[in-house]
Amino acid sequence: MKPANHKYCRMSKNSGTDNLVTDTNDKGTVDVFRDTPLRYLGYANEVGEAFRPVIDEKLVWGSYGVASLYVLADTVSKAVTVWRNEHPSSRFKESVKTGVDVLVWQSFASVIIPGFTINRICALSSYLLRRSPVKKYSKPMTVAIGLCSIPLIIHPIDRGVDFAMDRSVRPILRGI
């Protein structure tokens, strides 16, 4: 489950206009946070939400902690990469802009929206299953529905967050 091809707020001058440049994968390098199994840590909270009916609440919140640490690690990694590659006169500004872009994107695309979505899918599934002839199996079926929903929501959420950020946060960052 590779995330959608999203842009990071690393500015470049092309034909006199500021344009967003896609992440380092365009240069053929491996992004450990996007192209390796480490990416699955960003989905920890969705898995926690799916298992909410059968596990302790503290474990669900712990899954949000894992996903949040993933987001922070990716943010720091991208900002440090920009810091190392930028000219000293612009490195602070460009690394902060990149960090803000990655932090906002990852927060919404990896934690907030998917966690809420799986929570609501599971809540609705549980509600309906408890009122059905299979109510005896409502908890494991709710978990299964939640887990099966994760791959279906990832790419639409990634694209939606890209769309929203391209029309809100990124133009603001571009203007700085």
From TrEMBL:
Belongs to the MTFP1 family. PANTHER family: MITOCHONDRIAL FISSION PROCESS PROTEIN 1. This is Mitochondrial fission process protein 1. It comes from Nesidiocoris tenuis.
